[in-house]
Write a structure and sequence with these properties.
Distance between the termini: 71 Å
Mean pLDDT: 82
Strand order of the largest sheet: 1-2
Oligomer: single chain
Number of helices: 18
Bound molecules: heme C
Largest sheet: 2 strands, antiparallel
Structural class: mainly alpha
Helix content: 55-70%
Radius of gyration: 31 Å
Order of helices and strands: HHHHHHHHHHHHHEEHHHHH
C-alpha cells in the first residue's frame, strides 16, 4: 500500500512537470499570436488589403491602429455586411467612404483569429513606421503556426483531469491505508523515503503493481479514454478531404490566369452566379487565347490533342478528340444539395470565402472542410441581407397575401424556377 502511495507521488510529480512544460508551451503560444495573425492575414486579406497602402480596400495599418473599439473591429471583420445591413453608423461611413465596394464576409474567423490579425496589423504597422525603408523585411516566418489551439486546450484538459483523478485517488488510498493499519493495530508509520535499491526490489514492486486492482483499473480507464478519443477524432475526420490537391492532367494555373492575368472567375466558371453548379470550362474557352498564346508549349498541345485540333492547319478533327478528364476536387455526397447562385448571387458571398485564395494557387486544393458542421456554422452566423433582394421582396409579398387571406399558389413561392426541380 505504501508503495502505491509512493508511485502516485512520483506520478503526480511527473504530471506536474508535464503540466509545467505545457504551460510554458502555452505562454510561448500566446506570444506567437502575431505570427498566427500574419498567416491568416496573408491567406485571407492580402487579396484586397496591404498594411501601409491602399489596395482594393483601405490601408489597414492606419485604420486598425487608430480604431480603439476592438469589438467593433471584430464584428466588422467577421461580418461587415451584417453591420452595414443593420445600419451601424461607423460601418456605413467606412462603406460609403470606399465607394461601397463591399468587403468579403469572414464568419469562419473566431474572435481569437481576429484578435491575432489585429495584433499582427498593429505590430507590422508599428515596424513599418519605425523603419519605412525595410518594407518587406518582416514577410518571412509565418508558416509555423505551432500546435492548434484545440490541441492545446485538449492537452491542458487531460492534464487537469488526470491531476484531479490522482489527487482523489491518493486521498482515498491514504485513508484506506490508515484504516487498514488501524485495523491491524499497527502504529502508523512515517513515510520513509526508501528508494528501491536493488533490481529484486523493483521486480517485487512491479509484481505488486500488477496485482494492485486499483492501479490496473486506473490504467485501463486511462487507456480506454485515450483510445476512445482517438477513434472519435478519426471517425469525425473520415471522408473529410480538406487540403485535397490532386494532380491535374494539364498544368493549368489559377495563380497565373486568375491571379496575375486577373481573368474573372465567371469567364470560366460561368454557372457560379446563375446556377447550382459553378461548372468547369470547356476547352474551347481556353482556345479563345491559346489558339495563339504559347502554341509551342507541350501543356497547350494537350489542349489541342483533346480537341483534335491541328495547329499547323488550324482545323478541328472531332474524330481525334479525346476529352480531358479534370480530377474533381470539391465533391459533396449526392444526398446534399448545394447551390452556387444561392450563395454567390443572393447572399453575395465571395468565392474566396469558401474556396480560399484560389487566385494564388498554382494547383487548386480543397480549402474548406465541406462538412455539414461547416455549412451549419456559417448559416448560424451569417445574417441574411434581405434589403433590395427580389427574392425576399417576393417572400414579404407572399406573407402579406397569406395574412390577408388571399390565394397563394406554388408559382408565387418560386415553384416555377428551373433549379427547384432540375439539377
Ligand atoms: C474582397 C476584398 C477584401 C478582402 C478579401 C478583405 N477586405 Fe477588408 N475591406 C475591403 C473593402 C473594399 C473595404 C472598404 C469598405 C467597403 O467598401 O465595404 C474594407 C474595409 C476593411 C476595414 C475597415 C477599414 C476602415 O477604414 O475602418 C477593415 C478593418 C478590414 N477591411 C479588415 C479586413 C481583414 C482583417 C481582412 C482579412 C480577414 C479583410 N479586410 C479582407 C475589401 C476586402
Ligand atoms: C481561365 C479559366 C479559369 C479561370 C479564370 C478560373 N478558373 Fe477555376 N478552374 C478552371 C479549370 C480548367 C479548373 C479545373 C482544373 C483545376 O482544378 O485546376 C478549375 C477548377 C476550379 C476549382 C476546383 C473545382 C473542383 O474540381 O472542385 C475551383 C474551386 C475554382 N476553379 C475556383 C475558381 C475561382 C474562385 C476563380 C476566380 C478567382 C477561378 N476558379 C478562375 C478554370 C478557371
Ligand atoms: C484570356 C486568355 C487565356 C485564357 C482564356 C486561358 N489562358 Fe492559359 N495562358 C494565357 C497566357 C497569356 C499564358 C502565358 C503566360 C506566359 O507568358 O507564361 C497562359 C499560360 C498557360 C499555361 C502554361 C503554359 C506553359 O507551358 O507555360 C497553361 C498550361 C495554360 N495556360 C492552360 C490554360 C487552360 C487549360 C485554359 C482553359 C481552362 C487556359 N489556359 C485559358 C492566357 C489564357
Ligand atoms: C458558400 C460556399 C461557396 C461559395 C461562396 C462558392 N463555392 Fe464553389 N463550391 C462550394 C461547394 C460546397 C462545392 C462542392 C459542390 C458539390 O460537390 O456539389 C463547390 C464546387 C465548386 C466547383 C466545382 C464544380 C462544381 O460546380 O461543383 C467550382 C469550379 C467552384 N465551386 C467555383 C466557385 C466559384 C468560381 C465561386 C465564386 C463565384 C464559388 N465557387 C463560390 C462552395 C462554395
Ligand atoms: C460562408 C457562409 C456559408 C456557407 C459556408 C454555406 N452557406 Fe448556405 N447559405 C448561406 C447564406 C448567407 C444563405 C442565405 C442566402 C439568402 O437567401 O439570402 C444560405 C442559403 C442556403 C440554402 C437555401 C436555404 C433556403 O432557405 O432556401 C441552402 C440549401 C444552403 N445554403 C446550403 C448550404 C450547404 C449544403 C452548405 C455546405 C456545403 C452551405 N450552404 C454552406 C451561407 C453559407
Ligand atoms: C415543378 C418542377 C419543374 C420545374 C419548375 C421545371 N421543370 Fe423541367 N422538368 C420537370 C420534370 C419532372 C421533367 C421530366 C419530365 C419527363 O421526363 O417527362 C422536366 C423536363 C424538362 C426538360 C426535358 C428534359 C428531357 O430530357 O427531355 C427540359 C429541357 C426542362 N425540363 C427544362 C426546364 C427549364 C428550362 C425550366 C425553368 C424554366 C424547368 N424545366 C422548370 C420538372 C420541372
Amino acid at each position: 500500500m505504501r508503495n502505491i502511495s509512493l508511485i502516485f507521488k512520483q506520478f503526480s510529480r511527473t504530471v506536474l512537470l508535464v503540466a509545467g512544460f505545457a504551460a510554458m508551451g502555452f505562454t510561448a503560444h500566446a506570444q506567437a499570436d502575431v505570427a498566427k495573425g500574419e498567416a491568416i492575414f496573408k491567406a485571407k486579406c492580402t487579396a484586397c488589403h496591404k498594411v501601409d497602402q491602399k489596395l482594393v480596400g483601405p490601408a489597414l495599418g492606419p485604420a486598425i491602429s487608430s480604431e480603439t473599439d476592438d469589438k467593433w473591429l471584430t464584428k466588422w471583420i467577421q461580418n461587415n455586411q451584417a453591420l452595414i445591413a443593420a445600419k451601424d453608423p461607423k460601418a456605413l461611413k467606412v462603406y460609403n467612404d470606399n465607394n461601397q465596394q463591399g468587403m468579403s464576409v469572414f464568419t469562419e474567423l473566431s474572435d481569437g483569429d481576429v484578435a491575432n490579425i489585429i495584433a499582427y496589423v498593429r505590430d507590422d504597422y508599428k515596424k513599418l513606421q519605425a523603419a519605412p525603408a525595410a518594407g518587406g523585411a518582416n514577410g518571412a516566418a509565418a508558416a509555423d503556426n505551432g500546435p492548434s489551439s484545440v490541441m492545446i486546450y485538449a492537452l491542458v484538459a487531460v492534464i487537469v483531469i488526470a491531476f484531479i483523478v490522482i489527487l482523489v485517488l491518493n486521498r482515498a488510498i491514504g485513508t484506506l491505508e490508515k484504516l487498514l493499519l488501524k485495523k491491524q493495530a499497527e502504529p502508523i508509520e512515517e513515510e520513509a523515503e526508501e528508494e528501491p535499491t536493488a533490481t529484486v526490489d523493483r521486480l517485487a514492486l512491479a509484481k505488486k503493481l500488477i496485482k494492485n486492482k486499483k492501479l490496473v483499473f486506473f490504467v485501463v480507464v486511462c487507456g480506454t479514454i485515450a483510445l476512445g478519443a482517438l477513434s472519435w477524432v478519426t471517425m469525425w475526420n473520415t471522408n473529410v478531404h480538406q487540403g485535397y490537391q490532386p494532380e491535374q492532367p494539364i498544368k493549368y494555373s489559377h495563380e497565373l490566369h486568375a491571379g496575375v492575368m486577373k481573368i474573372n472567375c465567371q469567364y470560366c466558371h460561368s454557372g457560379a452566379y446563375k446556377s447550382k453548379n459553378a461548372s468547369i470550362p470547356s476547352l474551347n474557352i481556353c482556345m479563345n487565347c491559346h489558339k495563339v498564346v504559347k502554341t509551342e508549349s507541350p501543356e497547350i498541345h494537350k489542349i489541342y490533342d483533346a480537341l483534335g485540333y491541328d495547329p499547323a492547319t488550324q482545323k478541328y478533327d472531332s474524330t481525334k478528340a479525346k476529352p480531358i478528364q479534370w480530377v474533381r476536387i470539391h465533391n459533396l455526397p449526392d444526398f446534399a444539395y448545394f447551390n452556387h447562385s444561392q450563395h454567390t448571387k443572393v447572399a453575395g458571398i465571395q468565392c474566396q470565402v469558401c474556396h480560399g485564395p484560389i487566385q494564388t494557387m498554382k494547383q487548386v486544393y480543397q480549402y474548406s472542410p465541406l462538412t455539414m458542421k461547416w455549412c451549419i456554422q456559417c448559416h448560424k452566423r451569417t445574417e441574411v441581407n434581405y434589403k433590395g433582394s427580389a427574392y425576399y421582396d417576393k417572400m414579404i409579398e407572399v406573407h402579406d397575401r397569406i395574412k390577408n387571406g388571399e390565394k397563394v399558389t406554388e408559382a408565387a413561392l418560386g415553384g416555377l424556377e428551373c433549379g427547384k426541380c432540375h439539377y
